[in-house]
Amino acid sequence: MELRDYIRIIRKGWILIVAVMLAGVAAGALYSLLATPKYQASTQLFVSVQSSDGATAGDLVQGSSAAQQKVRSYVDVVTSARVLQPVVEKLDLDVTSAQLASQVSAESPTNTVLMNISVQDDDATQAAAIANAVGASFADVVVNQLERPDEGGPSLVKIETIEPANAPASPSSPRTTLNIALGFLVGLAIGLAAAVLRSTLDTRIHSRHDVEALVTTPVLGQIGFNPEAKVRPLVVSTDPRSPRAEAFRSLRTNLQFVNFDSDHRCFVVTSSLPGEGKTTTTSNLAIAISETGASVVVVDGDLRLPRLAETMGLEGVVGLTDVLIGRADIEDVLQPWGRGSLYVLPAGRIPPNPSELLGSRAMVGVIEALTKSFDYVLIDAPPLLPVTDAAVISKYTGGAIVVAAAGRTKKNELTGATRNLQGIGSTLLGVILTMTPAKGPDAYGYGNYGAYYGADPDRLDLGESLHEQTHRPTASRNR
């Protein structure tokens, strides 16, 4: 993935990222609140190797080097039972020497003869007492036991306390600021990983970017989601100033550049599965094209589950099936819609053999006749994955336009639909993305078109035309 892909994921999953990040901060704060405070006291010792009275400068250098080497080996002696057991007995501690060793740590700065002994305890005063007792016990063990000459006499190693331990005023742990910062960073990392994982596992199409990553054909338009689409599907007519209406006009403009080198202006509009908005899209697109003065006919080619007549508010008992079986002529079943040059050819009665009818020579004749008589022919066809009807029809037209619903259509469904078209040699002209969200990184808005149009009373008059046209009797077309 590229950088812009990660930016999209962050924009899309920012709520999840922030939630996990806040959970990490809360966990760090809660840990700091519930953890038992620990106090750390430290004492510092100086280790030297004594030389004879007549020692030369070289002897002194050797003695310093020997002291540094001994200090490095003394670090492990500090936590031994030989040093800690006397401390347990002297202070009457309720722990064993092994348990006390977990509270004691020792270190020696590089190239020095200093040794730092630190002790952690729940009580600040006791931590200082243990640190001083461990220092004293360590000095006694080293000087009087480990480094005492076999032949007797004083030890050549001398250990002195140069910084006794004092009771600390504040606990060394928990470090609230550090824990909250770590919680923030860990939460941020987990949130980002979760957002990337969710995006990777999400197989649905959400945006234009997802479509362009799957198909090489262009995205002809993006139609915003409208919860009232089922109640008021013909938004171009009923609400011409809305962003969705303008989206259909933008789609109309883009369609003019599709297959522009051909005079074949007959297009099949389909989808991969039902419920992606192909009928609503086809109807509004036809109305938008008719607004330009072009003659348009929209055909209900879904002979299995026809919805076009209901969407357009027309009677659909007689239609395409009657023409295909020779029961009626095209001119007798075409129904005018609105005030422009838009006509509708309903599906008619549902036949028992829709695939045979749509693939017949009669269907080819209908398409040829409509293409000669109208500037644009739009065929609302069945989905591509359940049946092959749309793919069959598209072979006789200028190509197919596939509708995909954002947040609903899966990537493999869209690629499967395009493969069905390519498998029989049909042309995929483009994809229309419907149900795009109004907000978020996948949103596609148009701004305030009401302000752009202004108060134009002629445009407001379009609202009542729907009532007129739905009650207008069916008429034959005279051309």
List keywords for this structure.
Alpha-Beta Plaits, Rossmann fold, 15% strand, four-stranded antiparallel beta sheet, disordered C terminus, alpha/beta, eight-stranded mixed beta sheet, 479 residues
Task: Walk me through the structure.
It is a single chain. This protein is of the alpha/beta class. It folds into three domains: 3-35 and 175-200, no CATH class; 39-163, EIF_2_alpha (Alpha-Beta Plaits, 2-Layer Sandwich); 205-470, P-loop containing nucleotide triphosphate hydrolases (Rossmann fold, 3-Layer(aba) Sandwich). Helices cover 45% and strands 15% of the residues. Strands 5-12-11-6-10-7-9-8 form an eight-stranded mixed beta sheet, with helices on both faces. Strands 2-3-1-4 form a four-stranded antiparallel beta sheet. A hairpin with a 6-residue loop joins β2 and β3 (114-121). The relative contact order is 0.12. The model is unreliable at 53-61 and 446-479 (pLDDT under 50).
* Major sheet strand order: 5-12-11-6-10-7-9-8
The structural class is alpha/beta
Sheet having the most strands: 8 strands, mixed
Helix percentage range? 40-55%
- In CATH's first tier, which class of the largest domain applies? Alpha Beta
Strand content: 15-25%
| CATH-level-4 superfamily name of the largest domain | P-loop containing nucleotide triphosphate hydrolases
Oligomer: single chain
Low-confidence stretches: 53-61, 446-479
Instruction: Please give the count of helices.
Output: 21
How many structural units, i.e. domains?
3
CATH T-level topology of the largest domain:
Rossmann fold
Distance between the termini: 56 Å
Report the principal-axis shape: rod-shaped
Number of beta-strand segments: 12
